[in-house]
TrEMBL record:
One of its GO terms (biological process) is maturation of SSU-rRNA from tricistronic rRNA transcript (SSU-rRNA, 5.8S rRNA, LSU-rRNA). Residues 116-134 have a biased composition (Basic and acidic residues). Residues 64-77, 135-229 have a biased composition (Acidic residues). The lineage of its organism: Eukaryota, Amoebozoa, Evosea, Eumycetozoa, Dictyostelia. This is U3 small nucleolar RNA-associated protein 25. Pfam families: Utp25_C, UTP25_NTPase-like. Residues 661-838 form the UTP25 C-terminal domain. Signal peptide: none annotated. InterPro entries: P-loop_NTPase, UTP25, UTP25_C, UTP25_NTPase-like. SUPFAM superfamilies: P-loop containing nucleoside triphosphate hydrolases.
Length: 840
């Protein structure tokens, strides 16, 4: 065998010949795949496969480089690495539903098999049962005749007994209905049917007074239309209202009263508001002490990241003021801000006993001793410690939990101040009777209003007042003055403005019922009941919209304006700030400028009872400010930093964002281009980039239809509109001031590609939420403040080959975080490249 050439069969030779030809591109590769060299064949295959993989990798890199070159030509910038967004939330939902359907189908198949077996068994049994039934029929007829005779005798007795039982059951049901309300869990909406039934019951009780009140209503509306400020000062003929203060009782008699609770001298309310601050220097020392504390943060599940800034430890202050041996121990010096101190009972929070029962009646699920939801459990310690709060995670799901909680806090604060005043008056009366010198009790402000609540629409104001009336059950319904007038003014709405069911859920919640944005009224707590429409100088709580309050406050130079009633505000609550920003933010700025100012006129002020901090004009440093919004914006952040100077510190709460880009259904190429600021005017920088770089690219590519230009600022809208009008561009307009007929015509022209560009404002989208058809490309001239608007606009695109270009600057940092996510936004802002591409 040695020296002879090795032979192969024809079949094997043909196989290896074809194999060598298929895998060989060169002569060397063909010879290397010699079948006679079997020991080296595996190594050769591995080498060739590596070569093929390397070649494919080079092709992929060339394709990516080509894509980046195209983007640079299209956008005019350096593009960063592609960000893979991954499957959208819609895709994940579809996959999960498919898995559930498969499991459900299997269960149905198993049920069908069981049913078939049962049918067979039932058929066999039915044949045997038929014979038995025929035999029993005769016996049953005889028994029925006997039973009928007995029934006729007992019917009368049963009817009488049933009637008595029904009356008793109805009485029990009425009591239970008054106690039971639907379970309130964070993330779920409350049942509205029960609330409607309660309203119907109240209207039936007040039905006899409707005619008289309607006559008063017509006259009041005419007076309100005139700018005579009757809701601020009252009519000239009206007598001055007296506060609910026990002036003739001694302290012992006062303590026996059911509606009075002795104030805790060492409580947080007393420590915060009744500090003896006689000069601005003392206040500055307290502020410096608070600012010197190191800020700390903590992430709480389902709540977010809580950041504590300058929060003083009140427990240490309470221990310092306690008498006895414990006071001799030195309290540790505080170096860092503290987080909210969670407590377990109403007594620990100094909630008035009058509020225990009504609050518990508003709940059905006992999650803890306080009947608080998880969100309420974490927010109320901040309220109770009188810290400032900026909460930017409000939504339609947790809004009711929030406004019910701050309504409880507001009423509790009013009760504390009233009990404090009653106690002071009783002490003075005792001293007068005993002919002792009167104590120096300075626990009052310039004017009576203590709490101001700002909301955007009447629908929210109505729900807040309705809940406050539930918290004061000892006040009889027929003693609540002007209640029918309030129901008529704050529940009636134009039926022509009924909301389309296809609108988003948040839109249906915001614009439910009455959405009038000009209103103001006062609430006062008296012996006879809660009075609605109290004049401002005799009200304890003022509820208003920004516009309604601005008409009273006015501006410098107005002939008739007043802001003295805001001089002694101790708790300021602003809710649904994301909606207020779509109205006019300047009203909020004017409100803060006029808060806690020394009055310009004498409003029957008893200066002997006035706090020294009020006399020195330092009340703003004691005021608690609670801000609630679904978005954190530069305007809101500026208010929190500049006007919230509470000596007790402040708290921020926000969640880590996943990004709105995960909620986009179509597969789109999303480009974010960062512009660097040379000055404070970022609008001109964006405008120049739009005119010089973006619009010419669309012209070069031959895109002459389906371009939507999203503009978040009305000033920027007017600047772009004027340019388009001057250059005679092909465009249509959809803004908040556009006539409805013009909007319909513009949408039609844009859909049919008769016009190239649509100028589309954020406020127009907020108030209308139209589905715009015909969109191919979207240019965001500044990022939307409401992040879900970004996904709503992009989900209107039906074609997957559309392009999305978003311009942003460093001022849009907060909006960028909500859209792309927290981690991605940090990478984008730290990157040296100005352009970033996202694809899903």
């Amino acid at each position: 065998m040695v020296g002879k050439k090795q032979k192969l069969s024809k079949k094997i030779a043909k196989k290896y010949t074809l194999h060598r030809k298929y895998y060989s591109d060169t002569v060397s590769e063909f010879s290397s795949l010699n079948p006679f060299q079997r020991t080296k064949k595996s190594d050769k295959y591995a080498a060739i496969s590596q070569k093929v993989n390397a070649q494919n990798q080079r092709i992929k890199e060339l394709e990516e480089q080509q894509e980046q070159d195209e983007l640079e030509q299209e956008i005019g910038g350096d593009v960063d690495t592609l960000y893979e967004v991954g499957p959208s939330s819609y895709d994940l939902l579809v996959k999960s539903s498919q898995d559930k359907l498969k499991l459900r189908l299997k269960q149905l198949e198993e049920q069908e098999k069981l049913e078939k077996k049962l049918e067979k068994n039932n058929k066999k049994r039915s044949f045997s049962d038929i014979k038995d039934q025929n035999q029993d029929e005769d016996e049953d007829e005889d028994e029925d005749n006997d039973i009928e005779e007995d029934v006729e005798d007992d019917v009368k007795e049963d009817v009488e007994e049933d009637a008595e039982e029904d009356v008793e059951e109805e009485e029990e049901e009425e009591e239970v209905e008054g106690e039971e309300e639907e379970e309130e869990v964070e993330g779920e909406e409350e049942d509205e049917e029960e609330e409607v039934e309660e309203e119907d019951e109240e209207e039936e009780v007040e039905g006899e007074e409707i005619e008289e009140v309607e006559n008063d209503l017509n006259s009041d509306i005419e007076e309100n239309e005139e700018q005579d400020f009757t809701d601020v000062y009252g009519n000239k003929d009206d007598k001055e209202e007296e506060e609910e203060v026990e002036t003739n009782k001694t302290l012992e008699k006062l303590k026996k009263s059911e509606l009075f609770e002795n104030t805790n001298d060492n409580g947080i309310y007393n420590i915060h508001f009744n500090k003896d601050i006689t000069s601005k220097e003392e206040m500055n020392e307290l502020l410096l002490k608070s600012q010197s504390l190191e800020s700390i943060s903590k992430e709480i599940e389902d709540i977010g990241v809580i950041t504590s800034i300058g929060c003083v430890d009140y427990d240490n202050l309470i221990n310092e003021n306690k008498p006895g041996k414990s006071n001799q121990k030195k309290v540790k010096e505080q170096k860092e801000s503290i987080l909210p101190n969670l407590k377990n009972t109403f007594h620990d929070y100094d909630i008035k006993k009058r509020l225990y029962k009504p609050w518990l009646k508003s709940k059905t699920k006992k999650e803890n001793e306080l009947y608080f939801t998880n969100l309420q459990k974490n927010l109320f310690p901040i309220f109770n410690e009188y810290r400032d709060l900026l909460y930017t995670e409000e939504s339609m799901k947790n809004h009711k939990s929030i406004f019910k909680l701050y309504a409880l806090h507001a009423v509790n604060h009013i009760f504390k101040s009233k009990d404090q005043l009653s106690e002071d008056n009783a002490l003075i009366n005792e001293c007068k009777k005993l002919k002792k010198p009167e104590p120096d009790l300075r626990h009052q402000g310039f004017t009576r209003p203590k709490v101001v609540i700002i909301v955007p629409f009447r629908n929210t104001a109505f729900e807040i007042v309705r809940f406050i009336l539930k918290l004061v059950p000892h006040e009889l319904k027929d003693q609540v003055e002007n209640k029918t007038k309030f129901n008529n003014e704050y529940t009636q709405f134009d039926q022509d403005q009924e909301i389309n069911e296809n609108k988003p859920d948040d839109y249906k919640y915001i614009f439910r019922d009455n959405i009038d944005d000009c209103f103001r009224f006062g609430l006062s707590f008296r012996k006879g009941g809660v009075k609605l429409y109290s004049t401002f100088y005799h009200a304890d709580i003022i509820i208003a919209s920004p516009l309604g309050l601005r008409l009273v406050i006015g501006t410098e130079g107005d002939s008739q304006r007043d802001f003295d009633f805001l001089s002694s505000v101790e708790v300021l609550i602003i809710d649904q700030i994301d909606s207020i920003q779509q109205q006019n933010w300047d009203h909020i700025n004017v409100l803060f400028e006029n808060l806690n100012r020394i009055p310009t006129q004498d409003h029957n002020i008893d200066f002997s009872r006035l706090r020294n901090s009020s006399l020195e004009g330092l009340s703003s440093n004691l005021r608690q400010t609670l801000l609630f919004s679904s978005n954190l914006t530069p305007e809101l952040n500026s208010i929190f930093n500049q006007h919230c100077k509470n000596i007790s510190g402040k708290i921020r709460i926000k969640k880590i964002k996943n990004g709105e880009i995960t909620n986009i259904v179509p597969s789109l190429r999303q480009t974010f281009h960062r512009l660097y600021l040379d000055s404070n005017d970022d609008s001109k920088i964006r405008f120049n980039f739009l005119i010089d770089n973006i619009l010419p690219k669309f012209v070069q590519q031959g895109e002459n239809s389906g371009i939507l230009l999203y503009i978040s600022n009305f000033f920027e809208f007017t600047m772009i509109r004027n340019y388009f009008r001057k250059e005679a561009k092909s465009y249509v307009i959809c803004s908040e001031y556009t006539d409805p007929k013009a909007v319909t015509r513009a949408r039609s022209q844009f859909k049919e590609s008769a016009k190239t560009i649509m100028l589309f404002t954020e406020r127009f989208h907020f108030f209308n939420r139209y589905h715009i058809r015909g969109i191919k490309h979207v240019i965001f001239f500044g990022l939307p403040q409401n992040s879900h608007f970004y996904s709503e606009i992009l989900n209107m695109i039906t074609e997957n080959d559309g392009s999305i270009i978003s311009l942003y600057t460093l001022k849009d940092k907060m909006a960028l975080e909500r859209i792309v996510g927290t981690q991605r936004s940090y990478k984008m802002l730290e990157s040296d490249k100005p352009t970033h591409l996202f694809s899903n």
